[in-house]
């Protein structure tokens, strides 16, 4: 068994490193599938060998799927129900928890040092394509206590991940989530005429930053800045705030015109789908996105609405490389976005209503 394990790990490492020799959005879909498939096949075999739960969940599937579309997937909610890992407990470097909002149990994601390092490198490779390689003065739309708490929450992980691109980091909020106007004005005075990076989770940016500035009749002048944000759109839809009105408020209250939303999740940290200048979410070289019919799980055609399946080449410490999400969306096109980036581009429409989805999670697994 040990010799087989070494072979699988080597196959994965070799193919993954070859995949990363390509620019993050350079490969057309057909070319990328040829490069990505051996990586995902090696991951599939690795998790079958090292995660008994994964092996039981996918036992009805082909032993060696021949295409990415045939690759088995796990329902993302399984990570809220079970402790799924593919490494011994003593190799777990940290446990990442999702936000667990709306009374839900948070997902737990088990990371070893190798997976954590790949996550960080992938995030850097993706984000540099949008914000450049120079580290910028950074304004975080959150409170300092978020990164000081014991548990590694999704918010803390997001802040730590984006910190690779920042320097002289300033937090915009106090620990009670009120605006820290003194810190904001100091940041503006020091860097208002420079390129700066602003990062926060979407709902936090809207509710605790933009609405708070509006209520206090305040504004900032950060016209050379770029805002990167993610998550929380469900709450904004309830407030009748869409992407256009969000960007309009950002421009009006901060002067920032460069705004990039990204789609990602705690269960696949490092693999993020960033919004380009045309407003499209793009799939990077180390990932793929498939849309499936919620009832039949058949692959949808371009433009058809369905459940998003996200595939990532990164995780070896837990079986989260092929996940069926509870988000509805559609592929808008591939290899022809006006922004010039190759690969699929798509949009997320809404969260699936609270109904049962067919899939690998129908199998019973012991924690």
The percent of residues in helical segments reads: 25-40%
Structural class: alpha/beta
**Tally of helical segments:** 11
Low-confidence stretches: 355-367
Oligomer: single chain
Q: Kindly provide the name of the CATH class of the largest domain.
A: Mainly Beta
Mean pLDDT metric: 87
Number of domains: 2
CATH topology of the largest domain: Luciferase, domain 3
Q: Rough shape?
A: globular
What is the percentage of strand-forming residues? 15-25%
Largest sheet features: 6 strands, mixed
Q: What is the CA-based Rg, rounded?
A: 20 Å
Layout of strands and helices, then pairs:
Elements (H helix, E strand, L loop, with lengths): L1 H18 L9 H22 L1 H6 L16 E2 L2 H4 L12 E4 L10 E4 L1 H19 L4 E5 L4 H4 L3 E2 H9 L3 E6 L9 H11 L5 E5 H14 L10 E5 L2 H6 L4 H12 L3 E6 L9 E2 L6 E2 L4 E6 L13 E7 L9 E13 L9 E8 L16
